[in-house]
Amino acid sequence: xxxxxxxxxxxxxxxxxxxxxxxxxxxxxxxxxxxxxxxxxxxxxxxxxxxxxxxxxxxxxxxxxxxxxxxxxxxxxxxxxxxxxxxxxx
Length: 90
Known about the structure:
Blueprint: E1 4-6, E2 11-15, E3 17-18, E4 21-22, H1 23-29, E5 38-41, E6 47-51, E7 65-68, H2 70-73, E8 78-80
Antiparallel strand pairs: 1-8, 2-6, 2-7, 3-4, 5-6
């Protein structure tokens, strides 16, 4: 089991980079620049962008981009804690 954080009191924009699902390309095409309080790299070459509660909203679906925040979509989510090294090395 990997250590996680519950997005109960903050929001995270999870930007993934998986072959045809590249959230960085999606954000660039949409001309969206994230201005997060903190950015952490993920094991899959993506990023978690951390935001204060109430500062992000979930409007629609974006390929490779997930909103993880109770205030944005009504459900808190877990993310893998920054700095975690999985047993498989990432």
